[in-house]
Records
---
Amino acid sequence: MSMTGSVGGTDRRGVRELGAEEKVGWDAVPQGVVLTSFDGTSENSALIKPEDRVYSDFNSYTATVASWRIIKPVYNRDICIDCQNCWVWCPDTSIISRDKQMLGIDYDHCKGCGVCVEVCPTNPKSLLMFGENMDNDEALAAWPEKKKKAK
Ligand code: SF4
Ligand code: SF4
């Protein structure tokens, strides 16, 4: 399980692998059943940080889709200006940001679409896509230099 920065998440983040053998089709769910997102009360859950919420097994937070990915974004803290563009645009809420500071990638839920890299405005970019098997430290060591503006 991948955790990033100081936001470790709960033990329940990404505990289940959403492989084909584990999928439960909607035809297996009885009509009228309520699939709750939280164990216990959901009161004020919008005001609680994700890592502090008690998600149920029916919530996607407890499932990981990491194996769907063949390329991954790697984050370079040294260049990031905390503009939050990646956080706004990520279609899977897989950018971890707290108090307007970018902390990294939630690799349990990121699907490797590359949108965060596209919208990153720094030079060079603070997020780049690498092969899934690339070690993050190696990726950081291979980071490109700043591009000079054409005259
Ligand atoms: S690659 Fe796609 S899913 Fe993953 S963090 Fe970037 S925008 Fe989100
Ligand atoms: S878009 Fe780039 S510069 Fe902006 S917060 Fe994300 S990684 Fe940092």
Note: Residues 80-86, 102, 119-120, 122, 126-127 surround iron/sulfur cluster (ligand 2) (CB under 6 Å).
---
Amino acid sequence: MPTDAAPNASFDVSDEQLREILAQAEIPPLLPALAYLTGDLSLLREELRPDPLMFGMPQGGLSEEQQAAARALALETLIRFRDGGCRPAPTPRDEDVLRMVEFAVGGSEMAPYLPLLEEELAHGHEDRRAPGWSKSQIAPDTDFRVLIIGAGMSGLLAAHRLRQAGVDFLIVEKNRDVGGTWLENTYPGCRVDNPNHNYSYSFAQRHDWPFHFSTQDVLLDYFRDCAKQFGVGDAIRFGTEVRSATWQEDEQRWSVEVTGPGGERETLFANALISAVGQLNRPLFPDIPGRDDFQGPSFHSARWDHGTPLRGKRVAVIGTGASAMQLIPEIAPLVGELLVFQRTPAWMGPTPDYHDPVPDGLQWLFANVPSYSEWNRFCTFWRMGDGALEAVRVDESWESDGSSVSPANAMLRLLLTEYIRAEFADRPDLLEVVMPEYPPGAKRLIRDNGVWAATLKRENVRLVTTPIERISAAGIVTADGTEHAADVLIYGTGFQASHFLTPMKVTGRGGLDLHEQWKGDARAYLGITIPGFPNLFCLYGPNTNIVVNGSIIYFSECGVRYILGCIQQLLRSGQRALDVKRDVHDRFNRDVDAQNRRMAWGASDVNSWYKNELGRVAQNWPFTLLDYWQRTLEPDPADYEFSGGEA
Ligand SMILES: Cc1cc2nc3c(=O)[nH]c(=O)nc-3n(C[C@H](O)[C@H](O)[C@H](O)COP(=O)(O)OP(=O)(O)OC[C@H]3O[C@@H](n4cnc5c(N)ncnc54)[C@H](O)[C@@H]3O)c2cc1C
């Protein structure tokens, strides 16, 4: 259950217990949180500041000595705080908060981030992104109904905000439950790879996540609980899939064809349509000849067949992307023989606590030290987001052989190379094929706590890097003519990420077909609105994904606020429809494309799911997280053509 109770600001623990608790602390947020709590800025000691270049490393790259010194300082401070009756200092002045923030991130210029952080941290558990207006105040007599497609993280969020604003809505969901990604991906080892203290709604944070990187079942429970807490369950029609949506110019509304649980067809009408269908919702199968010839069971990681026994079997897994690298270590000990087919190796980010429960001491700090949990969320937000961008941005003056895109990227490469070398030091044969050649950040970085090397070194595991030629009745045939026999075939081959809003047929103004307009190259303004498709809003739409790493929840929170802003403008103005101007949309997309080319994932020609079939980066947001927040704070009416209102 998401907990939003403020931590209890009185504690009864001995000095020794505090010492033990602090031994388990996350260090980067510790001193800023204590400075915030006590008002003592002298805690922000220069020699204990995380190194921005090492910030992505465990404990902010601080040495053992630095960590010990920070813990000792924290111990003295917490003892004083306890003995003084646990009285937090008054809320610090903005300039002091800025000093704390800049200390926490290792020195960057952070002033523009302060308003964003106030929201993101939700200090005092205030929901600062709530709409702040209601339909009953601004347009009580206007009929306005929204249809949301999808009840995953994004759809639930949109529903929650619409309910807060008193706007009528219905969600249609093709599955039988909420959760989307976290309902569908039940493969062994499935977990989030963004720490949960960051991968959660800003307004429904919990201090008591059981793991740093929670497993799928924990996330599914979280989203189920959120749906309950938001009170939106009664507005969801499960087992109902949207087939097509057509804009009716006369009525200024969408007509939406759905198929219900029993296959029955129905037409629903809505003034606005929110697509919350996800980017990673439709499995991708590789285009390998003979896929239907295989005689044994085969399935995709996102459609795990729990009825197929794997114990003792010869299992082949195609792919070594994010899902595959989570599931392979889990099934390796069970199966008789495991064949892993790798096309391109992944860079691995050392994450020692990847599978670990949040230790009791850290749980205690989250629950009892006011603001520690929020500072921890902020440090993760920065480390996973804008703090990491510098390391993947192209430096035009950097002369490179294609293995890095800038000095900072080369430095990151060095750190990651050292890690892989150490992991495979005793297996030169594997080392040779697991070391990526492309720049870090060109493909998704995968977290690792040592299990990948340990798995590939197992007696019963074989890594195959010869390209696959075809699939046969008995297994997989590689380009060297070898047939690798398998009883079960598992596709860890990702999703049709660039096929946005498929397989729905969406028809806009003047019979315009969305997929014909896109021609395989999906684009939207801010990832949200598309010219010719009035009152259609996308969440997790084109160019709203991130690589290193951030949380998609952040993007959806920004997107939903923007959509609510659009609806507010319609209701206030008495207009019925808004349609983004084509030149606004085109200019925005030109900027996105130019900036994506300046990022490792756009500059490198390595294969990745970030590029569509035309080679354009259609998935990723190339600017900062701050940028997305600023651009989506409220819609600029000048960006839109309004229609349908009284003249
Ligand atoms: C294995 C895995 C791990 C991930 N890890 C992370 C991570 O660590 N950090 C991160 O930020 N993101 C991660 N993601 C991305 C993840 O998809 C998003 O974080 C988030 O769950 C997206 O939520 P969503 O609601 O936008 O989409 P989804 O969760 O995909 O939900 C879309 C919903 O729409 C429904 N739907 C689709 N089409 C229709 C239709 N035509 N009619 C009716 N209903 C429809 C689907 O059934 C589904 O319920 C991960 C994704 C996967 C697959």
Note: The chain has a mean pLDDT of 94.
